[in-house]
Amino acid sequence: FVLVDSGSGYPYACHAAALPERAPSQLIGELLVVNAAVLSGLDELEGHPTYYRRELVGICGEDEPAWMYVLTDASALEAIRANQSARHQCVNPPGDWRSFRLHQAA
């Protein structure tokens, strides 16, 4: 995956194949346990399945996969590929949104 700053206070998780010019990395995040009603609300919030698609992904050190929202919106991906805005920078350290934001705040 590639983690990209949306420029709006949250990251885009993208398939590496969608952004071949950017270096892929493992993502660092939190696992949350939610019920079906909350998951349905998250799907609506994230624009699943048109803007983001909820996909099962493997988790290091875990036997079971987890759901993750991956950016699939063609126009958003094209804007990132075209680098139309400096806001679409890769998160550094790669895949670590929290450290990236803490570094920006410092």
Oligomer: single chain
Q: Based on CA inertia axes, which overall geometry fits?
A: globular
Largest sheet: 2 strands, antiparallel
Order of strands in the sheet with the most strands?
A: 1-2
Please provide the ordered H/E string of secondary-structure elements. Answer: EEHEEHH
Number of strands: 4
Number of domains: 1
- From the alpha carbons, calculate the radius of gyration and give it in angstroms: 14 Å
**What is the CA–CA distance across the termini?**
26 Å
Q: Give the rounded overall mean pLDDT.
A: 94
Strand fraction equals 15-25%
Unreliable stretches covering 5 or more consecutive residues: none
Structure annotation, total helices: 3
Structural class: alpha+beta
Helicity level, as a percent range?
Answer: 25-40%
Characterise the protein shown here:
- This protein has 106 residues and is α+β, with helices and mostly antiparallel strands.
- It has one domain.
- 27% of the residues lie in helices and 19% in strands.
- It is built from 3 helices and 4 strands, in the order ββαββαα.
- The protein has helices at 36-46, 74-82, 97-105; strands at 2-5, 11-14, 52-57, 66-71.
- A two-stranded antiparallel sheet has the order 1-2.
- A hairpin with a 5-residue loop joins strand 1 (2-5) and strand 2 (11-14).
- The radius of gyration is 14 Å and the shape is globular.
- The relative contact order is 0.24.
- The mean pLDDT is 94.
- It holds the Pfam family GGACT.
- This is Gamma-glutamylcyclotransferase AIG2-like domain-containing protein.
- Residues 3-98 form the Gamma-glutamylcyclotransferase AIG2-like domain.
- It comes from Calcidiscus leptoporus.
